[in-house]
Amino acid sequence: MVTVAEQESIKVIVFKLMDKEYAIPVSHVQGIEKMMHITRVPRTEKFVKGVINLRGVVTPIINLRERFGLPPAENTESVRIIIVQLDDVEVGFVVDSANDVIDIPVKSIEPQPEVVGVKEEAFISGVSKIGNRLLILLHLDKVLNLSE
Amino acid sequence: MEMNQQYLDMFIEESKEHLQACSDLLLELEKNPNDISIVNEIFRSAHTLKGMAATMGFEDLADLTHKMENVLDAIRNEKIKVDSNLLDIVFESVDHLEAMITDIASGGNGKRDVSEIVEKLKAIEAGKQIPSSTPVQQEIAADVAVEEEISAGRYLIYDEYDITVLQQSKEQGFNAYEITVSLRQDCLLKAARVYMVFQVLEKCGEVIKSFPTVENLEEEQFDQNFQVAFISKDSAEEIQKKVSKVSEIENVVVVPLTDEMVRKASKEEIATKERQQQDLEKSNQAPTKQKEEPAKKETNASKQSAHSKTIRVSIERLDILMNLFEELVIDRGRLQSIANDVKHSELTETVERMSRTMGDLQNIVLTMRMIPIETVFNRFPKMVRSLSRELNKKINLEIIGAETELDRTVIDEIGDPLVHLIRNSVDHGIESPDVRKSKGKPEEGTVTLRAYHSGNYVFIEIEDDGAGINKDKVLKKAIERGIVTKESALSLTDKQINELIFESGFSTAEKITDVSGRGVGLDVVKTTIQSLGGSISIESQEDVGSKFSIQLPLTLSIISVMLVEIEKEIYAIPLSSIIETSIIKKSEILNAHNQKVIDFRGKVVPLIFLDEVFEVPRSEAFDDEYQSVVIVRKGDKLAGLVVDSFIGQQEIVLKSLGNYLKNIFAISGATILGNGQVALIIDINALMK
């Protein structure tokens, strides 16, 4: 994999949670699916909503709102599942909506602003300001780490 | 690059097969040391292996095979006699070859120091084992001369017919040539190149003869070179140029065929003919042998034709096929429900027909993953042979049911446990010949390896007529190691004592031998088998023998389950652990120390409420006068799983929950139901502590 520093820009998938926009590098995204039936898996973390049948592969689903400690949302038409792969782990993130793919210039990525007391802080690898949009880049390793 | 990988894979697979054939046949040869037809077959396998290795550029491999081939050739020409010591060395070479192939398979270059074994082979080949009488020596010398001649490039042998043809064509003004064509080392499609060379030649003349024969050339049964005798009006130079135009050819040598070459060759021919005559006489003396031979050839031929009708498919592709197929199944489910709603007769009919075809298709897809257990079993004869020689024991290995089919994934896993159990039987089970004699048993011990199907299971048994398990010794050891206490030891049944040897850190071997007792105990075997969803048990009687029985699911990917419903959630319970289902009245549930139990056929059975265990969210309290209970078993313990309702029995495809969700309590996996939803499979072992 090419390190971020060597590239001019990175392509990211932008999605929404509440009123904020988040970004995941497109290289980690396997696909974006509409909401489908999720089978609950008992005795797992609360943010693990269960598993879905993704074209024959049983894929776990994480609700990102719950993972970040945000209030739950109503299921609307715009809700999407972003299938993300990191190393040998494949999971789906439930997000409010996902409809943008953009290039972020590497130079525009800044370390996360130091705000104390926000749970999602731990999952953020940086922020990028594109025009008047503020994109929050996710630290996938930490989002997927169950022990936190 | 990818092409090369593909050829490499093919090379590795085929080399393994040839090596396997070599070891099988060598074992057979040891039993019938005078049967030259077996030697011929081994020779053929070795020769093909050599050719393949040379083509792929594995010099060491080709070289060692060549040396082995020389020894086989000497046996075949009855210059040396077959005995166990000689076979030891040939087996050793096969081991080295195997190690090389393994190295190549794991990405190495197949290099290995084989100087020692090469020396040994050379010594045998030089006839060190036979008394040095002059005529034999001379024969060897003559043979060497012939070989030198061959290496100098003289292969073609002309019979009288050929000579007549050559003479006549010369009279008609044709020139006769011998053409030696060398293909490039990396030539991938040798047969195709040969074909192209022949095409070129046939345009400007006629091929009289070739070495190897045309059939062998077509089957790529040659290394890099082949020779043809050719008549043409063209000059040698022209022919050389034309043939060289074919790509992937390294060298073309065109030599005019002189009378001298023809005659000299034919003299050799006469010598071989004489030898054949002798062979014929010999076989006449042994009529039974002659009878056997054609029969053998026949089976060989049928084997080969069967071989050519199969293709190799990687297990990954089969998995992809399986996944695609499951998607189809899901769509079928949707189509069926649409057809039911629409009630259009033609649509319904089509969907029904499609369902039937898909049922057949499913069977085919599933059976494609099944391979005979032979692939695991056939490495054992050689292993038992070398073990018994190492330990100075006489052991006969019987294999029954090698054709029994098992899922590929199980096959891959079962090899090591079996190796362990067989080593155990040979080392600890079978006694040394004098001990056996003193016990009034035949000197030769028997180890039987048996496989058979029964229901949805495959059973593999390793039985020996050896010493059996000494219960006092086992108990003493178990108490020593703190596995059981002295008090509890008294109450153990024989069966329980036998099973103690599966406990971790247990080994009855008094001294650590090379064969077993290296710290890896039978407990590893047990864990492996359990991880495959199987079980192992042992029966033993002192001085009579022991029998290890392994029970394995036919396939890891498909299991029969009972689908049950709790609220709106569907769970699958493996049928293998279900005893029966029953519906009980609420009033039949009893309380015992905060544990709800029922009386099931006179036995007190604890109840497990799955809705509580799995924290199923209930919209309203489930209240019914009757409760559905699935009676399950783990070992000889029973429990009743309380569910809302039964859906029914079904065959399901096992799926993993993936790498993210590991160690989920009491869930062993998942499956996809007809409607496309995921259902979880309950792990009974985890539910019953």
Automatic annotation (TrEMBL), chain A:
<dbReference type="InterPro" id="IPR002545">
    <property type="entry name" value="CheW-lke_dom"/>
</dbReference>
<dbReference type="Pfam" id="PF01584">
    <property type="entry name" value="CheW"/>
</dbReference>
<dbReference type="GO" id="GO:0007165">
    <property type="term" value="P:signal transduction"/>
</dbReference>
<dbReference type="GO" id="GO:0006935">
    <property type="term" value="P:chemotaxis"/>
</dbReference>
<dbReference type="InterPro" id="IPR036061">
    <property type="entry name" value="CheW-like_dom_sf"/>
</dbReference>
<protein>
    <submittedName>
        <fullName>Chemotaxis protein CheW</fullName>
    </submittedName>
</protein>
<dbReference type="InterPro" id="IPR039315">
    <property type="entry name" value="CheW"/>
</dbReference>
<dbReference type="GO" id="GO:0005829">
    <property type="term" value="C:cytosol"/>
</dbReference>
<feature type="domain" description="CheW-like">
    <location>
        <begin position="9"/>
        <end position="148"/>
    </location>
</feature>
UniProtKB/TrEMBL annotation, chain B:
<dbReference type="InterPro" id="IPR037006">
    <property type="entry name" value="CheA-like_homodim_sf"/>
</dbReference>
<dbReference type="InterPro" id="IPR036097">
    <property type="entry name" value="HisK_dim/P_sf"/>
</dbReference>
<feature type="domain" description="Histidine kinase">
    <location>
        <begin position="306"/>
        <end position="556"/>
    </location>
</feature>
<dbReference type="Pfam" id="PF02895">
    <property type="entry name" value="H-kinase_dim"/>
</dbReference>
<dbReference type="InterPro" id="IPR036641">
    <property type="entry name" value="HPT_dom_sf"/>
</dbReference>
<feature type="domain" description="CheW-like">
    <location>
        <begin position="558"/>
        <end position="689"/>
    </location>
</feature>
<dbReference type="InterPro" id="IPR035891">
    <property type="entry name" value="CheY-binding_CheA"/>
</dbReference>
<keyword id="KW-0808">Transferase</keyword>
<keyword id="KW-0418">Kinase</keyword>
<keyword id="KW-0145">Chemotaxis</keyword>
<dbReference type="GO" id="GO:0000155">
    <property type="term" value="F:phosphorelay sensor kinase activity"/>
</dbReference>
<dbReference type="InterPro" id="IPR036890">
    <property type="entry name" value="HATPase_C_sf"/>
</dbReference>
<keyword id="KW-0067">ATP-binding</keyword>
<dbReference type="InterPro" id="IPR036061">
    <property type="entry name" value="CheW-like_dom_sf"/>
</dbReference>
<dbReference type="InterPro" id="IPR037052">
    <property type="entry name" value="CheA-like_P2_sf"/>
</dbReference>
<feature type="compositionally biased region" description="Basic and acidic residues">
    <location>
        <begin position="289"/>
        <end position="300"/>
    </location>
</feature>
<dbReference type="Pfam" id="PF01584">
    <property type="entry name" value="CheW"/>
</dbReference>
<feature type="domain" description="HPt">
    <location>
        <begin position="1"/>
        <end position="104"/>
    </location>
</feature>
<feature type="region of interest" description="Disordered">
    <location>
        <begin position="269"/>
        <end position="308"/>
    </location>
</feature>
<keyword id="KW-0597">Phosphoprotein</keyword>
<feature type="modified residue" description="Phosphohistidine">
    <location>
        <position position="47"/>
    </location>
</feature>
<dbReference type="Pfam" id="PF02518">
    <property type="entry name" value="HATPase_c"/>
</dbReference>
